[in-house]
Amino acid sequence: MKYFNLAKYHIMKKALITGANKSIGLEYELHDTQYKVNVVDPGYTATDFNNHSGPGTVERDWMRSLNP
After folding, report:
1. Res 31 pLDDT > 80
2. Rg of the chain in Å (alpha carbons)
3. Which residues, including other chains, have CB under 8 Å from residue 20's CB and lie 6 or more apart?
4. What percent of the chain is helix, strand and coil (3-state, nearest 5)?
5. What is the DSSP letter of 51?
């Protein structure tokens, strides 16, 4: 089961990195339009998945993303 979770983690991390990179490209493409592109990266956050080893909490990092 441990390796299955690790595989899911790597797949999701790759998807997030790819999505962030595409968002940067989309922001560049739309810079002269009325549309805005926002991307949030809470960083390494303590969750059940990483045994709460991250320095941030879900609540704090979520609030920080609302008030940069």
Report:
1. yes
2. 15
3. 39, 41
4. 55, 5, 45
5. T
